[in-house]
Design a protein that fits this description.
Helix content is 49%, strand content 11%. The chain is α+β, with helices and mostly antiparallel strands and 370 residues long. The chain folds into three domains: 61 residues, Molybdopterin biosynthesis moea protein, domain 2, CATH 3.90.105.10; 205 residues, Hypothetical protein af1432 (Orthogonal Bundle); 48 residues, no CATH class. It has a five-stranded antiparallel sheet. A two-stranded antiparallel sheet has the order 1-4. A two-stranded antiparallel sheet has the order 2-3. α7 packs across α13. It is globular. It starts with a strand and ends with a strand. 34% of the residues are buried. Bound molecules: fe (ii) ion. Fe (ii) ion (FE2) binds next to loops. Fe (ii) ion binds next to loops.
Length: 370
């Protein structure tokens, strides 16, 4: 019998003793043969280490590239996530996580009610659980950092829906919208992916690349979402957000290849929140991307999004990291001292006492927050 770190666990290893989490609840029992799902479960419950039998792992099936990618990234995440680990360890995050899970449960129940029982959407209840979060926490970038720390285990669609709702609400506040409009925008974020419940789960959760047929099937979630809500007594902007959140202002989106002027303004905001969350959040199989890489990715595709909203959004995020310690090119340490309005993803940084303007240094980039 030997002790191993959970990050070193491999499929096929045999657990040598019952494993409990910090709350003394049994997570897995002695004799369990580890599978990818069980290892994910151990990580989800923050089990740091446990005992395994000395024997060679039982060969379940050989790693494919996706498994390998998951394996590498999950280790990388733990080693490089100093900034986010501090947030995860805070009492504030514990409160946030509790409220967050309540919202996830509500949205899950709501989707099920609409699809299987043909029930009306309890907008007020949904809204209240999200508002509790933005009322309790300062609605600024620190909330985005906490969203980043939520581990996405299963229930991907529901967690993503709450994330997008929170980001939408904050954008609405930053844009100076009325309370009533912020409420509608929040519901747009919560409901935008409801059509995914009509797509087979094995396609939605399939790791790796989708086949062209599968991708075409996934794209229909926009139309399904609209159809599920079209006869309900809801603000029209909520229905259009479901239909149009994958449209792009340059006409390269789906389902109708609409351009800027034909896309509802709230759907254009949901599009930004949706992509921001997809890039920054931690999935089991890969770590979220550093906010500055995300900002640069948006800047490279600026014509796809509503420029007024996007510029305000990216500038707010970039500004909030002035004075932040960062990692450059994976191993250099630096401090952000100045934001460049014309290249928000490439600010001015102090590295070893020298000022470096990243907008003039193609060979350097911020790879992590420290
Ligand atoms: Fe979507």
């Amino acid at each position: 019998m030997k002790r191993i770190l959970t990050i070193k666990a491999e499929e096929g290893m045999v657990v040598a003793g019952d494993v409990y989490n910090e709350g003394n609840h049994l997570v897995i029992s002695r004799g369990t043969v580890l599978t990818k799902e069980i290892i994910d479960r151990l990580k989800y419950y923050s089990v740091f280490d446990f005992f395994i039998e000395d024997d060679k792992p039982i060969k379940l099936n050989s790693y494919n590239m996706d498994d390998l990618e998951r394996h590498i990234f999950s280790e990388y995440k733990i080693e490089s996530g100093g900034y986010y680990n501090k947030i995860k360890d805070s009492e504030e995050f514990e409160v946030f996580e509790g409220l967050f899970q309540e919202s996830v449960k509500n949205i899950q129940d709501c989707f099920n009610d609409v699809v299987t029982k043909n029930k009306e959407i309890r907008v007020e209840q949904l809204l209240d659980s999200v508002k509790k979060i933005t009322d309790d926490f300062k609605p600024d970038v620190s909330l985005f950092d906490m969203i980043h720390c939520i581990e996405e285990y299963d229930d991907l669609t529901y967690i993503h829906s709450v994330n997008v709702a929170l980001i939408c609400r904050i954008i609405g506040m930053w844009m100076g919208y009325s309370e009533a409009d912020c409420d509608v925008l929040t519901i747009c974020g919560l409901m935008h992916d409801i059509g995914k419940v009509m797509i087979p789960n094995e396609v939605i959760t399939k790791p790796g690349r989708l086949s062209p047929t599968e991708y075409a099937l996934v794209q229909t979630h926009t139309i399904h979402g609209y159809n599920l809500m079209k006869d309900l007594d809801l603000d029209e902007r909520i229905k259009y957000a479901a239909l149009q959140h994958h449209e792009r202002c340059d006409g390269k989106g789906y389902p109708n290849k609409h351009r800027y002027e034909n896309i509802d303004s709230f759907a254009r905001i949901v599009a930004i929140a949706d992509v921001y969350d997809a890039m920054t959040s931690n999935r089991i199989y890969r770590k979220g991307i550093c906010p500055f890489e995300v900002i640069s990715a948006f800047e490279d595709n600026i014509e796809s999004y509503d420029p007024k909203v996007l510029f305000m959004f990216l500038e707010r995020i970039a500004q909030s990291y002035v004075n932040a310690d960062v990692v450059l090119n994976g191993d250099l340490e630096g401090k952000i001292v100045m934001i460049n309005k014309y290249a928000l993803g490439r600010p001015g940084v102090l590295v070893g006492g020298a000022y470096v303007d990243l907008s003039r240094q193609d060979n350097m980039e911020i790879t992590a927050l420290k």
